[in-house]
Write a structure and sequence with these properties.
- The protein is an alpha+beta fold and 406 residues long.
- The protein has 2 domains: 223 residues, Vaccinia Virus protein VP39 (Rossmann fold); 133 residues, Jelly Rolls (Sandwich), CATH 2.60.120.
- It is 17% helix and 37% strand.
- The protein is built from 8 helices and 19 strands.
- β9 and β10 form a beta hairpin.
- α2 packs antiparallel against α3 and α2 crosses α4.
- The two termini are 23 Å apart.
Amino acid sequence: MARNFSFLLAVAAMAACASPLLAQRRTPEQLRHEMVDEVIVAEGVGNQRVIQAMRDTPRHEFVPINLRERAYFDMALPIGESQTISPPYIVAYMTEQIDPQPEDKVLEIGTGSGYQAAVLSPLVKEVYTIEIVETLARRAEAAIKRLKYPNVKVKAGDGYLGWPEHAPFDKIIVTCSPEKVPQPLVDQLKEGGRMIIPLGERYQQTFYLFTKRDGKMVSEALLPAVFVPMTGKAESQRQVKPDGGNPKLVNAGFEEVEEKSGRAKGWYYQRQLTVVRGAEGDKAPAGERFVRFTNRELGRGAHVLQAMAVDGSKVRDVTLSCTIKGTNIRPGEKELACLAITFFDEGRKNVAETAIGNWQGTFDWRTDTAQIKVPSSAKEAIIQLGLLGATGELCVDDVVLRFRAK
């Protein structure tokens, strides 16, 4: 059975605070410390300098005023011009991966709101950040100056080209996604330097950490991710284009697993999730593997996400189903175990939300299904699955999406 919910389901919904009402009763500083403790530290970020920078950087100053009550939720938020500010965990994770040092000169591609540059500011000597959307670049520059980050320089331009006048850079952090690493960024990275960048198709990306050794880029695949595309020259060179008339899920049965991390391929922002290889007595309903979400603390995220192109002018409706098993699932006021889908228009405005579930209690494997109308203005969608802040244990297998064309 499908249910409609008014709370925001997009991009890593549950966070350190369970609701905006609670946020209004705490100061921004209190909310920030709670967010760092419950989202960033609890999820494995260990670099103490990075943790302190996250405690000190006022994220609420970098989001629109009407969204400030959500500033310390671990979620992306729109900042205008079809762009978003990344979830705090992702900012901390990317920052930790480049191992920032006090004498580093860092290049950031994709300034956005300026928040990532502000986090980097106390950790390194110089930050150079480029934003292709001029209105965002100017807005971020104003915020950087107002909040007194004197070692951050902002430029409006195409990040594909880097910033050659100030090269080479010790570290490069890319907060938008090209299909391949732009050669100018390779050329501008110092020998021994590090670059973190989300690479891949429009809705299927992986973080890669590159280290430059003997002039060559040595890569290490990290976590699955999804970012807004790198526009400009990088987008014009993209070979694999999204097909909104043929929406599909990747690794819907959780059979494919990242070798190093043990995480499910194709799904991102994985929280409190274990990929289980079924054994006697706990056999997967389909294939060999399923996923298990476990949460003991009401409000803490335990979920996965996946995005896809869905063109509402071509697709009439989608049918979603999943096979689930629950143990002692207890929802909160807004924390609901479910499978949710959120549709967005061309400007990434939320145009519809629907969820299968509000699963509760203890139950054996069963399959839930719902047919969902696609808004005519939809261009993309995000699937969110898990406990979503509810407590207990939820096992999921065989998430299936079928569509009917217009």
